[in-house]
């Protein structure tokens, strides 16, 4: 029986595993943490329909748990090499695993907002990231460092995305719609809060994303200001002073808010860097793993037998990740049937 | 993208040489803060036992002229090249620059030459024709506040008057203000990068003081060349300074420390203008907030006589700060000097 090893137990890896589990091959998921679900587990609701993350993940996790799929936790792969027609995967702790085919489903990591010092993350108490806010939403407890409900919240788009100063020129694609989703969630929990979203331009690519944007303005009174944040300062009472430019009115502005949410972008995961160091898989200009052909072979690497699923190739939504991962499973089966 | 874009600036430090400095002075500091540069040399030579060369043949860097569009880019580069030639002739390779404007210009010049070697060749030819001099580029370029930062702990060991309120034992609250051209042009030239440089905060903490983090901390002091040189725009300069004073006032700072000649000058002098025009003084004691250079601060903690380092020349009375630190001084001499200098 052929052995397929999937690196990563997030939504991409789970999708590939679910597709392969009844296809007469042995499947192993290697997960670096102690749980399945990956980055998606950090979220509570999903755009565009506010469906619950646990509902999306539940089916996949149950399927994996009830099948013959083996899951190895606490294992981070940092080396992949081919020996004849087999692959040997090696973890940081020197665990070695053999495979006939490898699926890279290593996902992404979020931008480290401390690099944008001017925004004040980890410097000022009430500057948080979109990931921190998700935890607050999960606990139904959106409060400032003083334990009070904020009355004014600013969302800052494109933190670590489309920013030459931090070396990320690309758009993370899902942050605009995530900001709108989170702003609505905050407004649902705190109806009296005033919310301001600072954006470069709103990249609402999904067919129903613009409707959510309109809903946010019309039904939730969320205000959108076109302009990037210049800098944040903290006042004595721990509220924040922000300086930005309103590029529609062409004027600088200052504003006092109780909380700032930084919409942190998507960056290549450590696995991509390991592959670069090992000179094994090629990376694209943004550091994500390179696809053989960006139109026709989006699941295939330049290394035959190594396949790609999900955000290891670049930012994408959950729906797109699932589609991409199903296609990866199909490519794996084609490859195994040939070999 | 260039590698430094991924730098976590809070962890960033730059290399500062340990010894053998070629000192490049400011064109205006000796007028406004007459003791600062001399006491810097004295601390290095006589307390830290370092070698620092003070070249009599040096000139202004012409930075004010350059930023006012009077001096051309080629001319200022040739002036810088001449300073480097003086350094080369004396056998030094580490320049220490007293002025933040000059520091920005030296870094800008080196940057231009790095990316446009043909420009460097052209300037070498200009210098050759004009003076017959040749030069080597410096191995390191530090601002003099970088050097004080490097030796902050050595100074702390010899400290006579820490930045502490002698009566209460509480740390003094000090505002740090960094000149824009120190790191905002090239973040890698500043200790800690451009947003939160550590060069002055490191000094203040090492000497027992407490940093005041106020909302307009990173705002320009108002010195901006085009603001103060053009009389019609001078109101912008004053407005910027006022914005900072208004923002820091609730924190009740004991002093402001600057590493740029323009910042120190304007934050000191504009307090007087604001008082004259609006009757406003930024301290509970009705005095204003004393403004010091980092060399003056170093000299005070080391026990130098305040009037020998020129503190009587400051617009805002520094004696409340001296009293808090427990520094003894000749009061009569101070009053007499202030009368002579006609400082209100």
Explain what you see:
The complex is a heterodimer of chains A (339) and B (344). Chain A is of the alpha/beta class and 339 residues long. Chain A folds into two domains: 2-108 and 268-338, FAD/NAD(P)-binding domain; 113-265, FAD/NAD(P)-binding domain (3-Layer(bba) Sandwich). Helix content of chain A is 26%, strand content 28%. Chain A has a five-stranded parallel sheet, with helices on one face. A five-stranded parallel sheet of chain A has the order 11-18-12-13-14. In chain A, strands 6-7-8 form a three-stranded antiparallel sheet. Chain A is elongated and about 65 Å long. The model of chain A has no long low-confidence stretch (mean pLDDT 95). Chain B has 344 residues and is α/β, with parallel strands linked by helices. Helix content of chain B is 46%, strand content 8%. Chain B is built from 16 helices and eight strands. Chain B has helices at residues 29-32, 36-47, 63-67, 73-89, 100-115, 117-131, 144-150, 152-157, 180-183, 199-206, 225-228, 234-248, 261-278, 294-302, 319-325, 331-341, and strands spanning 21-24, 52-54, 94-97, 140-143, 173-177, 210-211, 255-258, 291-293. A four-stranded parallel sheet of chain B has the order 2-1-3-4. In chain B, α5 (100-115) crosses α6. The mean pLDDT of chain B is 94.
